[in-house]
């Protein structure tokens, strides 16, 4: 169909989105070419100086980026495996099916930042229940102030919060699968493991790719959890790109420099997500 | 074999259920504590481990002048901002999604899929990247620390979700239905409102639920773009965290803020079981 | 001359969906567009409906340009092969929808809807939900909606193809009666089908389409008796007409070493040379004095047998009016009646037919 009316449907949404975004995007680009900071606020022009600094003299940014990559990949991998497993478990006949389905969805519905406040008390090194448990073994792990354990804590909270989202996508996928391949597999006498490897998993491959990409996009924005839980600490050991940009821009008010960071970060994200999507398609679909 | 599998399965389900409810139970227990029962180390069961107190809950309904926490106003602010932004996003997103699903657009190398991707790709932007320019833009427009400003920002956050879900949904509604409506004398607008929309309610509900979830759970934009006039719930609660940390009122308010979304969880599950979600999510 | 298409072409991407299509249709007539899947039938119907805009060519109705009239202002009705109704409306409201759209009076709507439902045999179903109906009933609702509209052009896109065999037969019969009694002489009826039997049964004119082109337009009898090309002969017969490559020389038709026939009288005007000879499956018989063939496959269908035979690379399908078991590899003598043969020249056009067609 092709009527002139089509623009009336498309344009309001498109224009509103562009209208709200055009200024922030252009402004970020322009800002990144200036030295705006708390001493000299203003849009002067310093060329690519910020970008030179970023690529030659800012190990902290790149560390935060690799940390983010590590955190995103680890949490999304765990979420995928656990989410898929849970979805598979409550997919078919199981007692209290609805109860478990609702239960497994709940963390995703709760505000991350608020739940992280609760988790902070949970992981509290002297007053929290977790170390109350570990004290039985005469241990007091420093969940929030040891640089490695702090990462484990962040990963735990992220997995708790967002596995439900993966669970939801995977369960919706499982429920939409055709029945015939399973019947065929049953007739061929395939056991549960063979059935999963040769039928369920290949059929779920496209949905898996979509779910992983969506989660990677969301996970790369991780910010609230870290802000409340560790504030990037101890030291910079849980600092991610978003948090570093936040510190440079809204704590130290190096607006120009943080804009350059933002812009570089966005470009890297778009490229790496495209690459990851292609790799995933090769990996999953080939196997299937 | 089957026995081992079943044991593992139920074992894991039990473990995960514990993990899911642990922070809620801990918060529930903590909300009935007072200063002494918190600082004395971890305690769990009221009356057995500690003497329960209603202080954490009372604080929520007391006025700030009397040392209470103002949570009711942020609560309504959150509801209003979330609902308005969701509503606008759904309206604009649904219209755009319909256009992208049914009509052909072509401008140079840009085609339908590219436009759809443009909408959805806005989710890649981390809030922090947008927050600085938004701060300056809203300041310029005089919309800092206002509901209108927040709603504008949330539209960017939520419209991609609405477009994503609705494009997918419309692609599954046979286009012959719209064509029949056109043949039966409807112009494209009438066909959309009289025929397509009434048959898209499941998709609209799913899109609505998702917008609500992502709007309700946002913290960062509200944190950066509002100060005193308009306070949203997550910001209000996190503000408690940074002061002297009264764990009991913190827990009580956290539970209160999470409660409405439990209903959403039930709704999502219902639509999942009916099979309506599967179409909308793929 | 009422609905006239001239040189319509539609090419959304690389391939033509309509390629230089021309035809003319008169009011009060039934036209069947016959063609295989993807021949362009649906595209043609959607173009007439106005859902697609051809890149080239003209479409006129009563001499007025029809191509620029928006769909919703064309007085048309369409029934799809998928059972398309409005799922959120009751049966009554489904049929009333186009009438309400025209802002007709409620009492008139009531009368028209009821009479349309009566015509399709759905009295008493007014308040049902669409989802509660069977496929055949859903298609009846769609038909009732198109009838109630009293549209100037009624388009039916393979309306029976998704129904099971028995229901299809039954509905086809009903459709024919409804078409002849309920459709006014001001309307043009356009029916598309892949089934030559259906096209012949419905009567009226046939437009044969293949690969986006119109190959032949004529009455059912004409298309059956004198198919214009090899392709038409294949499309308009089920099973497709058998084709044999061969020569006419020295008063003989020669296909290969063992298949050879005397030239029948209706081939007398043909000069010597290379031809493709066509014979209908029904004109292939088992005869004691026939040509020896090997059986490849025999399918029994009802009281008939489809016999696939082969001789020196030449395969034929015979439709035998009996039930008989053949085993693959059996030898069988096949009789070919030379008087029933068609001849097509090297460009694939009809050269001679038993009904007097050809050059």
What does this structure look like?
The complex is a heterotrimer of chains A (288), B (282) and C (359). Chain A is 74% helix and 0% strand. Chain A is mainly alpha-helical. Chain A has one domain (60-287): MetI-like fold (Orthogonal Bundle). Chain B has 282 residues and is mostly helical. Chain B is 73% helix and 1% strand. Chain B has a two-stranded antiparallel ribbon with strand order 1-2. In chain B, helix 3 packs across helix 13, helix 4 (72-102) packs parallel to helix 7 (147-172) and helix 10 packs antiparallel against helix 13 (247-273). Chain B is globular and about 75 Å long. Helix content of chain C is 24%, strand content 34%. In chain C, helix 2 runs parallel beside helix 4 and helix 3 crosses helix 4. Classes of the chains: A mainly alpha (288), B mainly alpha (282), C alpha+beta (359).
CATH class assignment of the largest domain in chain C: Alpha Beta
Q: Report the mean per-residue pLDDT of chain B as an integer.
A: 85
N- to C-terminal separation of chain B?
Answer: 34 Å
Biggest sheet layout of chain C = 6 strands, mixed
The fourth-level CATH homologous superfamily of the largest domain in chain C is: P-loop containing nucleotide triphosphate hydrolases
Percentage of residues in strands of chain B? under 5%
How many distinct helices of chain C?
Answer: 8
Number of E-state strands of chain C? 20
CATH-defined fold name of the largest domain in chain B: MetI-like fold
Under the CATH scheme, which architecture of the largest domain in chain B would be assigned?
Answer: Orthogonal Bundle
Order of helices and strands of chain C: EEEHEEEHHHEHEHEEHHEEEEEEEEEE
- The H-level CATH homologous superfamily of the largest domain in chain B, spelled out, is MetI-like
The number of domains of chain C is: 2
Structural domains of chain B: how many: 2
The side-by-side strand order for the widest beta sheet of chain B comes to 1-2
Query: Would you report the number of β strands of chain B?
Result: 2
């Amino acid at each position: 169909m092709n009527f002139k009316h089509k623009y009336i449907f498309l344009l309001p949404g498109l224009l509103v989105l562009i209208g709200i975004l055009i200024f922030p995007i252009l402004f970020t680009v322009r800002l990144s070419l200036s030295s705006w900071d708390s001493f000299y606020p203003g849009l002067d022009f310093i060329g690519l100086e910020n970008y030179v600094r970023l690529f030659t003299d800012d190990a902290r940014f790149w560390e935060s980026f690799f940390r983010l990559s590590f955190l995103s990949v680890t949490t999304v991998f765990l979420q995928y495996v656990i989410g898929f497993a849970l979805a598979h478990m409550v997919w078919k006949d199981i007692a209290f099916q609805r109860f478990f389905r609702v239960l497994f969805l709940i963390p995703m519905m709760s505000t991350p930042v608020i739940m992280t406040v609760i988790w902070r008390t949970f992981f509290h090194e002297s007053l929290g229940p977790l170390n109350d448990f570990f004290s039985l073994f005469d241990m007091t792990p420093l969940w929030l102030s040891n640089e490695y354990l702090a990462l484990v804590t962040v990963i735990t909270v992220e997995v708790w919060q967002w596995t439900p989202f993966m669970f939801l996508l995977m369960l919706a996928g499982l429920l939409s699968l055709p029945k015939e391949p399973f019947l065929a597999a049953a007739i061929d006498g395939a056991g549960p493991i063979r059935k999963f490897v040769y039928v369920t998993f290949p059929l779920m491959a496209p949905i898996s790719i979509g779910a992983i990409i969506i989660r990677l996009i969301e996970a790369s924005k991780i910010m609230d959890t870290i802000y409340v839980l560790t504030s990037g600490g101890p030291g910079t050991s849980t600092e991610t790109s978003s948090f570093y940009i936040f510190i440079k821009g809204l704590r130290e008010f190096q607006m120009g420099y943080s804009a350059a960071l933002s812009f570089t970060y966005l470009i890297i994200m778009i490229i790496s997500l495209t690459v990851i999507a292609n790799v995933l398609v090769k990996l999953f679909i080939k196997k299937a | 074999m089957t026995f081992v599998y079943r044991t593992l399965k139920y074992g894991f389900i039990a473990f995960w259920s514990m993990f899911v409810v642990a922070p809620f139970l801990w918060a529930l227990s903590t909300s009935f504590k007072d200063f002494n029962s918190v600082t004395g180390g971890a305690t769990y069961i009221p009356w057995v481990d500690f003497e329960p107190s209603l202080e954490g809950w009372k604080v929520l309904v007391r006025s700030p002048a009397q040392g209470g926490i103002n949570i009711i106003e942020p609560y309504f602010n959150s509801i209003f901002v979330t609902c308005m932004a969701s509503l606008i996003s759904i309206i604009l997103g649904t219209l755009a999604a319909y256009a992208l699903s049914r009509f052909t657009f072509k401008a140079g190398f840009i085609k339908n899929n590219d436009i759809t991707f443009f909408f959805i790709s806005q989710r890649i932007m981390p809030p922090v990247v947008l927050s600085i320019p938004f701060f300056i833009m809203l300041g310029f427009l005089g919309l800092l620390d206002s509901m209108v400003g927040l709603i504008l920002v949330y539209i960017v956050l939520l419209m991609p979700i609405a477009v994503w879900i609705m494009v997918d949904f419309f692609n599954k509604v046979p286009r012959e239905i719209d064509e029949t409506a056109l043949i039966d004398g409807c112009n494209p607008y009438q066909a959309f409102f009289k025929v397509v929309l009434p048959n898209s309610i499941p998709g609209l509900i799913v899109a609505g639920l998702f917008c609500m979830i992502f709007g309700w759970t946002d913290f960062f934009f509200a944190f950066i773009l509002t100060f005193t006039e308009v306070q949203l719930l997550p910001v209000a609660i996190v503000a408690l965290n940074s002061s002297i940390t009264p764990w009991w009122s913190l827990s009580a308010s956290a539970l209160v803020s999470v409660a409405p979304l439990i209903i959403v969880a039930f709704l999502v599950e219902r639509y999942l079981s009916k099979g309506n979600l599967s179409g909308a999510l793929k | 001359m009422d609905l006239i298409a001239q040189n319509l072409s539609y090419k959304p991407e690389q391939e033509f969906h309509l390629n230089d299509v021309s035809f003319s249709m008169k009011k009060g007539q039934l036209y069947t567009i016959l063609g295989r899947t993807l021949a362009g039938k649906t595209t043609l119907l959607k173009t007439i409906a106005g859902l697609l805009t051809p890149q080239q060519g003209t479409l006129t109705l009563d001499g007025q340009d029809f191509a620029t009239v928006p769909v919703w202002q064309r007085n048309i009705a369409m029934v799809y092969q998928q059972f398309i109704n409005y799922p959120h409306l009751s049966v009554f409201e489904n049929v009333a929808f186009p009438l309400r759209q025209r802002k007709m009076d409620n009492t008139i709507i009531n009368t028209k809807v009821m009479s349309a439902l009566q015509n399709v045999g759905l009295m008493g179903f007014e308040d049902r939900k669409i989802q509660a109906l069977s496929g055949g009933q859903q298609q009846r609702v769609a038909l009732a909606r198109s009838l109630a509209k009293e549209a100037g052009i009624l388009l039916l896109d393979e309306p029976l193809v998704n129904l099971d065999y028995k229901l299809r037969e039954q509905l086809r019969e009903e459709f024919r009666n409804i078409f002849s009694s309920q459709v006014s002489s001001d309307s043009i009826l356009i029916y598309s089908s892949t089934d030559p039997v259906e096209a012949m049964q419905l009567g009226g004119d046939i437009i044969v389409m293949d690969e986006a082109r119109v190959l032949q337009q004529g009455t059912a009898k004409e298309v059956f008796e004198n198919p214009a090309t090899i392709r038409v002969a294949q499309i308009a017969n089920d099973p497709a007409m058998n084709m044999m490559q061969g020569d006419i020389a020295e008063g003989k038709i020669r296909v290969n070493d063992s298949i050879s026939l005397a030239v029948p009288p209706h081939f007398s005007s043909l000069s010597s040379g290379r031809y493709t000879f066509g014979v209908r499956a029904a004109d292939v018989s088992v005869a004691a004095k026939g040509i020896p063939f090997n059986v490849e496959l025999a399918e029994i269908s009802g009281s008939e047998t489809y016999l696939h035979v082969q001789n020196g690379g030449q395969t034929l399908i015979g439709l035998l009016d009996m039930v008989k078991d053949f085993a693959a590899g059996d030898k069988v003598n096949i009789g070919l009646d030379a008087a029933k043969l068609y001849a097509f020249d090297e460009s694939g056009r009809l050269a001679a037919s038993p009904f007097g067609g050809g050059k």
